[in-house]
Amino acid sequence: MEVREVLRQTSLFAGLSDAQLAELERAAHPVTYSPGELIVEAGTTDALGMWVVNDGEVEVSTEGYAVTRFGPGEYFGELALVAPLGTARSADVRAISQVAAIHLAREAFRRLIAASPALAMAVVGELAARLQRTNDLVGRLVALVPAHQAGKVDDLLTGAEAAAVPLLGPIEFALIREGT
């Protein structure tokens, strides 16, 4: 499949015009990974970009626990595009099978969103949707805590659970912890 079509079928870019997709395509580079190959390493700050999976499957994990998997049409690493430079990656991403993907470099992408309010709003909308899913997940996790441990909710979100909710900020966590 051509790069532009892969991008068009991704929820993050589905609403873009042909001209915007053409700009995005110029910033994109096809990449391949072998089964077991580490694509992103947690804690590093040098993986400056995001990936859209064209073929194959990747697994996201933290502290040895699988958090999720992404396949064709799905993407990962998008936070690195908008987070402050030097922000550490929150999880490992490894190829489960042979993977063909599209890599979008941070600086090229940032130039595109600066010039395209539609693309910037698409990214904000998608990040907001992921944040909502994260908040829902945390709410379900907190509901599992017995009443006698309600004061220890901070302990709930360590290890794999904490990495599964990388978008949860201190305000949202405080609201959840207080049961609001």
Question: What attributes characterize this protein structure?
Answer:
8 helices, 180 residues, 4-stranded antiparallel beta sheet, 41% helix
What does this structure look like?
The protein is 41% helix and 22% strand. The C terminus is likely disordered. Strand 4 and strand 5 form a beta hairpin. By secondary structure, the chain is of the alpha+beta class. It contains eight helices and eight strands. The chain is globular and about 55 Å long. The protein starts with a helix and ends with a helix. A four-stranded antiparallel beta sheet has the order 1-8-3-6. A four-stranded antiparallel beta sheet has the order 2-7-4-5.
What gap, in angstroms, lies between the N and C termini?
A: 46 Å
- Tally of DSSP β-strands: 8
Residues in helix, %: 40-55%
Strand content: 15-25%
Secondary structure class reads alpha+beta
- How many distinct helices? 8
**Spatial sequence of strands, sheet with the most strands:** 1-8-3-6
Rounded mean pLDDT is: 79
Topology:
Blueprint: H1 3-8, H2 18-26, E1 28-33, E2 38-40, E3 49-55, E4 58-62, E5 65-70, E6 75-76, H3 79-82, E7 92-95, E8 99-105, H4 106-115, H5 117-143, H6 153-156, H7 160-164, H8 170-177
Antiparallel strand pairs: 1-8, 2-7, 3-6, 3-8, 4-5, 4-7
Helix pairs in contact: 4-5
